[in-house]
């Protein structure tokens, strides 16, 4: 330890390290980081300095992504790695692809070149 450092300093560092590496808080910390960097920073730039419409649209997309991440964490329907007795639903892989893959085809056909 460095000179003047106490046992309490080391304990505090260990607690902070555990806080940031805890699997139960990982989603919360990840969403907070995304909101700060991808949401609030472009919004602040748009409101204070730059008049770019992208800087207003990007935080809206970020909010949608963060809501999806939080819902995935709260609902835990598809996997239960953190909650052993959580409710799960069974999804047929073929049916899932029959629904999802045509959406990608429609997006690709409707894609506009700029």
Chain-averaged pLDDT: 76
Largest beta-sheet details: none
* Count of helix runs: 4
Total number of strands: 0
Query: Which structural class should the secondary elements be placed in?
Result: mainly alpha
Give the domain tally.
1
Shape: flat
Low-confidence stretches: none
For the terminal residues, how far apart are their CA atoms?
A: 58 Å
What kind of oligomer do you see?
Answer: single chain
Gyration radius over CA: 21 Å
Helical content class: over 70%
Q: List SSEs in N-to-C order.
A: HHHH
What percent strand?
Answer: under 5%
Kindly describe this structure:
The protein is an all-alpha fold and 114 residues long. It has one domain. Helix 2 packs antiparallel against helix 3. The radius of gyration is 21 Å and the shape is flat. The mean pLDDT is 76.
SSE topology sketch:
Elements: H1 7-21, H2 23-48, H3 54-75, H4 93-109
Highlighted features:
114 residues, mainly alpha
Summary, kept brief:
The chain is an all-alpha fold.
């Amino acid at each position: 330890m460095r000179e003047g450092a106490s046992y309490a300093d080391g304990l505090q560092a260990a607690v902070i390290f555990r806080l940031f590496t805890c699997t139960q808080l990982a989603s919360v910390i990840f969403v907070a980081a995304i909101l700060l960097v991808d949401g609030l920073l472009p919004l602040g730039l748009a409101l204070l300095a730059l008049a770019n419409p992208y800087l207003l649209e990007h935080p809206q997309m970020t909010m949608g992504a963060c809501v999806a991440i939080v819902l995935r964490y709260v609902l835990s329907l598809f996997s239960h790695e953190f909650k052993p007795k959580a409710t799960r639903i069974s999804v047929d892989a073929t049916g899932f692809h029959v629904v999802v893959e045509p959406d990608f085809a429609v997006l690709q056909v409707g894609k506009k070149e700029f």
